[in-house]
Design goal:
The structure holds two protein chains of two kinds.
Chain A: H1 5-24, H2 32-37, H3 44-55, H4 58-71, H5 77-92, H6 96-102, H7 107-114, H8 117-135, H9 138-150, H10 157-205, H11 208-219, H12 234-250, H13 252-259, H14 264-296, H15 302-313, H16 318-350, H17 360-384, H18 391-415, H19 421-441, H20 450-453, H21 458-478
Helix pairs in contact in A: 1-10, 1-16, 3-10, 3-13, 3-14, 3-16, 4-9, 4-14, 4-15, 5-12, 5-14, 6-14, 7-8, 7-18, 8-16, 8-18, 8-19, 9-10, 9-15, 9-16, 9-17, 10-16, 10-17, 11-14, 12-18, 12-21, 13-16, 14-15, 16-17, 18-19, 18-21, 19-21
Chain B: H1 3-59
The chains are: A mainly alpha, B mainly alpha.
């Protein structure tokens, strides 16, 4: 075990403080908008802290470092793509500004304003399924990180996973977005410090020239050029760029932070300034993964290499701070995701199936129940599911199940007057099709006929989901303008 | 050293610096925003509570 007494003291004190603050923030929940979007009173710096904390979890560190270990520097391109995509959303206010102006709390709410209640129901189901499946592997990766860094090994994985999810579910259920925002801020400060400690510790122990040599010896040109690396290439770059724009504007846990901003201008600024951290968010863990390759050689488990390295090179005392920082990162991500997906299933699926809306108290109650159920699902799913190839690909393909259709529906709904119900159904259905086929077929890749085997290429399936969704929206709408005339948005202005 | 490696190293250094600079600024300014958010929420409670007291007095 690599953890010392001082590390334990730091960790336990931090956990106790976080839970205490999360529960204390419950007193600020006045009503539904207080619970779900913190009363829409989030200012710029707090918005950036909470958004960045949501987007950086231990899982982020794990999948990016895994990618660094298996592909060298060429994966750094992903950081640049994320920077460009989020900067575009922040600079133009693409989707987020009009959504904030319409004062929706979840993305599918917009479907009802622009299309129909049934589109909202379908969109809510797809968003919920894609989101919860996407989140399904978080807990396992976080458990691997903690057990490797702390030196417990894989035996402690289930116990660590259970403890983590119980703590986060507890304060998310009780405090809603107020707890999420308050703890996110604290967690952003601690996680930044933890990342800094990790980076310095690695730079002091692994020299740069050995890192460069390891990449060149192991991967050659493919280690520095993403266009010649078989994992990436042009199709991957286009897919990830579009996917980042869609996720930036429409991924409920992140977008809810824009929807909680005090006005649309602040929402745009939150996205713009947070985008400047996105290259670092990707490249720092990737660099740690590459450093692990140099330190351990190519025969280590790509998933466990980075946490193992940190466990070895981080000095005692600082290790507690690092683990607290990573736990902070995870907890802020979990709490935001739990709140986002439980809000969606309550407001956009269950409430849509009833003739009358729930009152606010009942909505909050059901949201809390679902936050607990999602936590339970994460625990069970995380323990048995085996991830295809790299975690990065799994996360982006499950994300595409929703974001592809949502991009078609929301972008066309906001900026194209001919978008109609049929187009929306087609975009949502076709957008989910290719990722779903990938998840179903990739385990039996060798036995498939060639025309089906193409769906087991994650880059093809990912890009295809956006192409199919866009085609579904365009042709579905154009061909049915008479039978299903587009309706103007209900309850607000479409454009800025 | 490979040119590609040098370019990635420079980009990495810039990205990491940008991340930590924003983290420091946001940590300092975000605390003020957080105080403001919580204070504002408390202030919102007070008039409501006062309003309730007033309405109770009227009904008495």
């Amino acid at each position: 075990m690599t953890f010392s007494i001082i590390d334990w003291i730091i960790l336990v004190a931090y956990l106790a403080f976080t839970v205490g603050v999360g529960l204390w923030a419950k007193r600020y929940v006045e009503d539904l908008s207080g619970y779900m979007v913190a009363g829409r009173r989030i200012k710029l710096s707090l918005g950036i802290a909470t958004f960045a904390a949501t987007e950086i979890g231990t899982i982020t560190f794990m999948y990016f470092s895994e990618l660094g270990y298996v592909s060298g520097f060429s994966c750094f391109i992903i950081g640049i793509l994320a920077l460009l995509a989020y900067m575009f959303v922040g600079k133009t206010g693409f989707i987020i500004a009009p959504l904030r102006r319409l004062e929706v709390m979840t993305i599918p709410e917009f479907y009802e304003l622009r299309y129909s209640r049934n589109v909202r129901l379908l969109g809510g189901i797809i968003l919920f399924l894609g989101g919860v499946l996407n989140m399904g592997i978080f807990l396992k990766f976080d458990g691997i990180f903690l057990s490797e860094v702390m030196g417990f090994g894989s035996d402690a994985l289930a116990l660590i996973m259970t403890l983590m999810i119980v703590i986060v579910v507890l304060y998310t259920i009780l405090g809603g977005m107020f707890s999420v925002v308050v703890t996110d801020y604290m967690q952003f400060v601690v996680l930044s410090l933890g990342i800094f400690v990790a980076l310095i510790a690695v730079l002091l122990h692994v020299d740069l020239s050995s890192i460069f040599d390891a990449v060149i010896n192991q991967y050659g040109e493919a280690g520095v050029n993403p266009l010649v690396n078989p994992r990436f290439g042009w199709m991957f770059i286009v897919w990830i760029l579009i996917s980042n724009i869609a996720a930036g504007a429409l991924w409920q846990p992140g977008t809810s932070k824009a929807l909680a901003s005090e006005n649309p201008q602040v929402a745009r600024k939150v996205f713009f300034y947070t985008s400047l951290t996105f290259a670092g968010r990707a490249m720092i863990p990737m660099f740690l993964g590459v450093a692990a390759l140099a330190y351990f050689g190519p025969n280590e488990s790509p998933t466990a290499a980075m946490p193992k390295l940190l466990g070895v090179v981080t000095p005692r005392g600082f290790l507690g701070l690092l683990v607290a920082g990573m736990l902070a990162a995870s907890m802020s991500t979990y709490s935001a995701y739990l709140l986002a997906w439980s809000s969606v299933i309550t407001r956009d699926v269950i409430a849509c199936l009833r003739p009358n809306d729930f009152d606010e108290r009942r909505t909050i109650f059901i949201t809390r129940i679902f936050a607990g159920l999602i936590g339970l699902f994460l625990l069970i799913f995380g323990l048995w599911y085996k991830i295809p190839d790299t975690a990065f690909q799994y996360l982006f393909i499950t994300g595409a199940m929703y974001t592809a259709g949502a991009l078609g529906c929301v972008a066309a709904g906001l900026y194209w007057s001919k978008a109609n119900n049929v187009g929306a159904y087609s975009a949502l259905g076709l957008g989910a099709l290719a990722p779903l086929l990938f998840l179903l077929l990739e385990k039996s890749r060798e036995t498939l006929p060639t025309w089906l085997a193409i769906f087991t290429d994650v880059n093809v399936s990912g890009l295809l989901s956006f192409v199919l969704a866009a085609a579904g929206m365009y042709f579905g709408s154009i061909l049915t303008q008479r039978s299903s005339p587009p309706r103007p948005i209900v309850g607000g202005e479409i454009n800025e | 050293m490979n040119n590609g490696v040098i370019i990635w190293l420079i980009i990495f250094a810039l990205a990491a610096a940008c991340f930590f600079v924003i983290a420091v600024i946001v940590s300092i300014k975000g605390f003020a925003d957080l105080q403001d958010l919580l204070q504002h929420s408390k202030h919102r409670d007070k008039p409501d509570a006062k309003l309730q007291e007033d309405s109770e007095k009227v009904s008495e």
